[in-house]
Amino acid sequence: MGLPHYDRTGRPITSRDWQALVTDGDYRVVARTEAGPVTVSTVWVGIDHQHSAGGPPLIFETAVFDRGGPRGREVRYATEEEALAGHLAVLAGRLV
């Protein structure tokens, strides 16, 4: 059995629905900002990165990329509101 899948509201969905949504850039991207030599990207991934460790499913993530690839670590969130706030915090230099 695979990992559970969730839509952007945190509602469980089938893997078939997830596969359709994850390829839709308009649905997947929460925020993307070019900031000098880096890009800050916050996306819905729809798979719980808590891996049943307790707490709400972490289905969004923010990552920082530069021309050489990923830079730093990903920060994960349970809600779209948290993800957007995290995106802004990364831009302000407070995370990642």
Summarize the structure in words:
The protein has 96 residues and is an alpha+beta fold. It has one domain (5-91). 25% of the residues lie in helices and 35% in strands. It is built from three helices and six strands. The chain has helices at 15-22, 25-28, 80-91, and strands at residues 5-6, 12-13, 29-35, 38-44, 60-66, 69-77. It has a four-stranded antiparallel β-sheet with strand order 3-4-5-6. The protein has a two-stranded antiparallel ribbon with strand order 1-2. Strand 5 (60-66) and strand 6 form a beta hairpin. It is globular, with a radius of gyration of 13 Å. The chain starts with a strand and ends in a 5-residue tail after the last helix. The model has no long low-confidence stretch (mean pLDDT 88).
User: Could you give the order of strands across the largest sheet?
Assistant: 3-4-5-6
Any idea what the radius of gyration is? Answer: 13 Å
N- to C-terminal separation?
32 Å
What characteristic shape results from the CA principal axes?
A: globular
- Percentage of helical residues? 25-40%
- Poorly predicted parts: none
How many distinct folded domains?
Answer: 1
Taking the sheet with the most strands, its summary is: 4 strands, antiparallel
**Element string (H = helix, E = strand):** EEHHEEEEH
Total strands: the figure is 6
Arithmetic mean pLDDT? 88
Question: If helices are DSSP runs of H or I spanning 4 or more residues, what is the number of helices?
Answer: 3
Taken as a percent bin, the fraction of beta residues is 35-45%
